[in-house]
Specification:
Shape of chain B: globular
Oligomer: heterodimer
Strand content of chain A: under 5%
Distance between the termini of chain A: 23 Å
Number of strands of chain A: 2
Number of helices of chain A: 23
Distance between the termini of chain B: 40 Å
Structural class of chain A: mainly alpha
Order of helices and strands of chain A: HHHHEEHHHHHHHHHHHHHHHHHHH
Structural class of chain B: alpha/beta
Number of domains of chain B: 1
Helix content of chain B: 40-55%
Largest interface: A-B, 27 and 15 residues
Number of strands of chain B: 9
CATH class of chain B: Alpha Beta
Strand content of chain B: 15-25%
Shape of chain A: globular
Radius of gyration of chain B: 20 Å
Strand order of the largest sheet of chain B: 2-1-3-4-9-8-5-6-7
Order of helices and strands of chain B: HEHEHEHEEHEHHEHEHE
Strand order of the largest sheet of chain A: 1-2
Largest sheet of chain A: 2 strands, antiparallel
Helix content of chain A: over 70%
Largest sheet of chain B: 9 strands, mixed
């Protein structure tokens, strides 16, 4: 998908001076730095990258890097002129994100996810260790079928309410951190669970089922290990028994899982359509089928619209809830990367990757995985994975190559090293601070490092053994 | 509204207080009057008839006018008697019953100084009691307020309802306070007034309804015979309760009066206690 029309755009500008390439590389680094200091700049991602996209296009045009002539297309009898920035955007990725987020937002309104969350809370009978295990697996499941941020918001907000109910707010930090780390593990489960998966998976041509079968075992092991570490390091244990257990069960019994369900029909419709969505999007990766031709973006948008039919009179409310900042960020990011491609910046970065690739099929992917993780821990993993996917696309790797998986694992798991490493860890820190718990950047890193190290070590071992 | 805030609201709304039935037992009842033993006899007989729901095993005691001359002495006497229920009337040891203001200084202090429930009857001389009042307790109305000890309130209301009687669990949300709050919201451009009006009103009424539903489930689970009815609405509290008392021939009103944060009576309870003087009130 990344290739698409833009493959035609990247045609004949191989002769770019090193000075111009370095100039554009500096522009790219400046953008990445601005994204890393997004909070300090008080600017949304879309605005930061939007500014760089416009400047890149202008400079790319001034330096004669952009193939404006190639934008005149002849389709049948029609002459079409496309603006240079239109084919630069990977509309397949944008439509998957737009459609699935719309679908998830509408489905969440059915009360389905809060019902699952509250049923699990009651089933735990208020025992802290069982609650941690239940919330941990629920985080992974929600991250896989929703997205990391929504999963963290649902599980994190419930954690605050339920631990408060149980009088166990001293365990809140441990719960929230373990859940935050598991959002990025759960984000590895399917091709559409996180944006790096979509970008790299599409570029590599990895099918939905192949992705799930490959990543699934790792997710199971990493989740079990992370929950075990969380219980040990934060002292989350089972209740002693007797009165303590009875009292805890009584306290969580007050949760009414049906409270958020306005309509039983919408609830069941939400559940059935979620299962159907996963099944259909999985089948869209079967080659030589109509759905495969139409693409996962079509499936996602179709389900989004289908879900909206149930709320046709208030659809505008759901449009307002779409993360337009994220979508505009993607569009602008793809434009920047396209200009960088014409300026040979990606080619230059690819040369830096050569020593890693020369390490061979065993050490090379391992080093790339760790390097990707470290890089995505301090900056946004989306530009990183988009750039690396573009670079790896130029290397004629097969879909089975471990290098793709190195980027997927690294970009996802790197988010667990620092509080700014991923949007879901940032949400967790927001909830932590909102709960009155002091946690600095360094404090987070100290607490997160054992988990990140264990998850990365497992990922490297898994990459070497199973991929 | 952020997604985080939205989900927090959903989970907070789902976290509901659950009523757990805890049967109330009355072994000793202390009747306090400002009369001599002989003068008090008709009153005591009327009280025993009125509270026949308590059964025959209750030990009845009387504290007459000659037993206490000051508020302090009254408190000492009630503390040493350690009853499960104090029964008295408005304007104890006062002629102010002629004016329908306040409960009288003895009762003002007694209801706040003791944790023993106080059953306050209309003053015997005032002739203000409704015809059906102080006869039996086949219709008891509890006012839930969701501040403290609601379960206790319901327990007492159920205990004092005759087996074939009706126990009303009610909550009237103050329309006046709500309008005052909305008047402020209407002046804030960033807030959609209609949304606030609809959503806040719905939530204010949903909470007591949920709690009453929880009471109903527990009552059914324990096989109690009292019929339970619910009323949850917006309105003027005094007017609404006055109307409800007349419409349903309510015999006894049960309400919380203690406020842990202050020495005076609970803000909602005092005007109700002063204004609704035609029927007995059980003040917890």
């Amino acid at each position: 998908m990344m290739g698409g029309i833009s493959a035609g755009v990247s045609g004949g500008h191989d002769e770019v001076s090193l000075g111009i390439t370095l100039f554009f590389a500096a522009l790219l680094i400046a953008m990445i730095m601005c994204l890393a200091f997004e909070e300090k700049l008080h600017a949304k991602k879309s605005v930061i990258v939007g500014v760089f996209a416009m400047v890149s296009l202008l400079l790319g045009g001034l330096f004669g890097l952009l193939p404006f002539a190639a934008m005149d297309l002849h389709v049948g009898d029609a002459d079409i002129h496309l603006p240079i920035y239109i084919p630069a955007i990977d509309w397949g990725v944008v439509s998957i994100i737009l459609g699935s987020s719309l679908f998830v937002d509408v489905t969440a309104k059915s009360g389905l996810f809060t019902w699952i969350a509250l049923r699990l809370t009651k089933a735990s009978k208020g025992d802290p260790l069982i609650l941690l295990i239940a919330y941990g697996w629920m985080t992974v499941f929600f991250s896989a079928v929703l997205n990391n941020v929504t999963a963290m918001i649902i599980v994190g907000s419930l954690t605050g309410v339920s631990l408060n109910r149980l009088g166990k707010t001293d365990k809140l930090l441990g719960f929230l951190l373990v859940e935050a780390f598991l959002t990025n593990v759960g984000g590895l489960l399917t091709l559409i669970s996180s944006v790096p998966n979509i970008i790299v998976g599409n570029a590599a041509g990895i099918s939905f089922m192949k992705f799930f079968v490959t990543a699934g075992p790792y997710v199971v092991v990493a989740t079990a290990v992370s929950i075990g570490m969380g219980a040990k390091l934060f002292g989350i244990r089972r209740l002693a028994g007797g009165n303590e257990q009875v009292e805890a069960a009584r306290l969580v019994a007050g949760f009414d899982e049906n409270d958020g369900i306005d309509s039983p029909f919408l609830f069941w419709f939400g559940g059935i359509s979620l299962v159907a969505f996963i099944a259909v999007i999985a089948s869209a990766s079967i080659p030589d089928t109509l759905l495969n031709e139409l693409g996962m973006g079509y499936v996602a948008i179709s389900f989004g619209i289908l879900a909206l039919v149930q709320h046709k009179a208030t659809a505008d409310r759901f449009y307002r809830e779409i993360d337009w900042d994220l979508l505009a960020f993607f569009a602008a990011l793809f434009i920047v990367i396209n200009v960088m491609e014409h300026a040979q910046v990606l080619h230059l970065l690819g040369r830096f990757l050569t020593p890693i690739l020369d390490l061979g099929e065993t050490v090379g992917p391992s080093v790339l995985l760790v390097a990707s993780a470290v890089a995505s821990s301090v900056t946004d993993n989306i530009p990183l994975s988009a750039m690396l996917a573009k670079i790896l696309s130029g290397l004629d790797l097969t879909a089975d190559s471990p290098y793709w998986w190195a980027v997927i694992f690294g970009a996802n798991l790197g988010g667990n090293i620092t509080p700014i490493g991923s949007a879901s860890t940032l949400v967790a820190v927001t909830i932590i601070h909102k709960s009155g718990i002091a946690l600095s950047f360094v404090g987070f890193v100290k607490l997160a490092l054992p988990y990140a190290a264990a998850q990365l070590a497992l990922a490297v071992a898994y990459l070497l053994i199973a991929v | 509204m952020t997604k985080l805030d939205s989900f927090e609201s959903i989970f907070k709304s789902a976290d509901k207080p659950v009523y757990i039935y805890d049967p109330v037992e009355f072994a000793r009842v202390l009747i306090v009057t400002d009369l001599s033993e002989a003068e008090a006899a008709p009153f005591i007989a009327q009280v025993r008839t009125f509270l026949s729901v308590l059964g025959n095993t209750v030990a009845w005691h009387h504290l007459g006018g000659e037993d206490f001359a000051t508020v302090g002495r009254l408190l000492e006497q009630t503390a040493s008697a350690a009853p499960d229920l104090i029964v008295t009337y408005r304007h104890l040891r006062s002629n102010a019953w002629k004016w329908p203001h306040g409960l009288g200084e003895y009762l003002d202090v007694l209801t706040q100084a003791t944790h023993i429930p106080v059953l306050v009857l209309p003053h015997p001389d005032a002739d203000r009691a409704l015809p059906h009042a102080v006869v039996n307790t086949d219709c008891v109305m509890a006012i839930t307020d969701h501040l403290t000890a609601d379960a206790r309130l319901v327990d007492y209301a159920l205990r004092l309802t005759e087996p074939s009687g009706t126990c009303w669990l009610t909550h009237i949300e103050s329309q006046h306070q709500f309008d005052h709050f909305l008047a402020a919201v209407e002046k804030i451009p960033e807030i959609e007034t209609n949304d606030v009006r609809e959503l806040v009103e719905a939530q204010l009424l949903k909470e007591p309804r949920d709690y009453i539903e929880s009471c109903r489930r527990a009552i059914e689970a324990h096989g109690l015979h009292a019929k339970v009815e619910a009323i949850v609405a917006m309105g003027d509290r005094i007017e609404e309760y006055r109307r409800l008392i007349e419409d349903h021939l309510v015999d006894l009103l049960v309400l919380n009066t203690m406020d842990g944060d202050q020495l005076a009576m609970h803000g909602q309870a005092y005007p109700l206690a002063v204004e609704l003087r035609e029927i007995p009130l059980l003040m917890l």
